[in-house]
Specification:
single chain, about 220 residues, alpha/beta, seven-stranded mixed beta sheet, 4 helices, about 20% helix, about 35% strand, binds 2-acetamido-2-deoxy-beta-D-glucopyranose, signal, ECPIP
Length: about 220
């Protein structure tokens, strides 16, 4: 090889390598900015993880390896607000209820990793905008539903949304846990401008939770 040809070759090689390296550094930089929360339950243990990469559903070993996980004691679980993407892998409704019932989550993914069919129960979730669902260990394609899109940035209070009349708008979704049994299309149905959830939906039997005189306009969504 001619010396000049060689130096041109190594120049391009260096450029290509630098390009690859640059892309790699940018890639991991972007990903490290976007850690998301993954909570999974396995044999009565609950693990709360911060992951920088997407982990295949129900791959507990990989999650323990790749994410930064902590064990959570059921007695310490509080109703929290999740301001970034939350993924939950679950096997039964009791733990899902502990983790999710009456929490505020706007971007949620639920993956069912169990084998025993789930009963029909309703989980109440505040402020839900987007839900992704993976049924029966990924044997069916993932499905998603957008409940509402909001221009609010994620730092704003999920409940402090106002409509044109400056009335407080509160989004609440009721998720039927039996939707994870077998394959059916994920559906949602919303009712706008509900002033009293207890009066509109007496069969929900959550009267202890919703006050009737809080001067809010609810958008009530059923996911089934
Ligand atoms: C899981 O961890 C996040 C922070 O990474 C925290 O905000 C959330 O409350 C935790 N959830 C549970 C159920 O421990
Ligand atoms: C992001 O997740 C990685 C593990 O996947 C962890 O090492 C890192 O501490 C996390 N960063 C934050 C800010 O939680
Ligand atoms: C969610 O909480 C409400 C009110 O405490 C309760 O009536 C309901 O049974 C809970 N849902 C589930 C699925 O446990
Ligand atoms: C919402 O409901 C209230 C009564 O509950 C009614 O006065 C108002 O006109 C309704 N608003 C819209 C936009 O439908
Ligand atoms: C409900 O809120 C609106 C706007 O904040 C206010 O104008 C109205 O007086 C309130 N009504 C009641 C019954 O508190």
């Amino acid at each position: 090889m001619e010396p000049r040809a060689f130096s041109a070759f190594s120049f391009w090689l260096a450029l290509i390598l630098a390009g690859l390296l640059g892309i790699h550094i940018t890639g991991s930089f972007v990903r490290s900015q976007k850690n998301h929360t993954l909570i999974f339950t396995k044999e009565n243990a609950i693990r709360n993880c911060s992951c920088s990469v997407d982990i295949r559903d129900c791959d507990y070993c990989l999650a323990n390896l790749m994410c930064n996980c902590k064990t959570v004691l059921p007695s310490t679980i509080e109703k929290t607000t999740y301001k970034s993407h939350l993924t939950i892998w679950f096997t039964d409704t009791s733990v899902l209820e502990m983790l999710l019932n009456f929490t505020k989550v706007w971007d949620l993914k639920l993956s069912f990793c169990g084998t025993t069919p789930l009963p029909t129960e309703y989980l109440a979730i505040w402020g839900l905008r987007k839900l992704r669902v993976n049924k029966v260990k990924g044997r069916f394609p993932e499905q998603s539903v957008i409940i509402h899109s909001s221009n609010n940035n994620e730092n704003e209070d999920l409940l402090a949304v106002h409509n044109k009349d400056r009335q407080m708008l509160a989004y609440i979704s009721f998720l039927d846990t039996s939707l994870f049994n077998g394959y059916s299309l994920l559906k949602s149905y919303s009712v706008d401008n509900v002033s009293s959830i207890t009066e509109h939906f007496p069969s929900l039997l959550y009267s202890d939770v919703f006050s009737t005189s809080d001067n809010k306009s609810y958008v009530v969504t059923f996911i089934y």
